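In this supplementary section we document a worked example of the pipeline. Step one takes a protein sequence of length 39 as its only input; no multiple sequence alignment statistics are reported here. Step two produces a three-dimensional model, which step three serialises into structure tokens for compact storage. The input and output of this example are shown verbatim.
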Amino acid sequence: MEVADLPGGAAVRDTQDGKNGHLYFSAAEWAALVSSVRL
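The serialised model returned by step three reads:
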């Protein structure tokens, strides 16, 4: 998995299969995801 920090959000892609494109998360969505998986 690769994450690109972008203005206003983040993009995530699978490094094993680049044909599948990427997912874009707004800054608020990314912050919610990261805070929910941190231990």
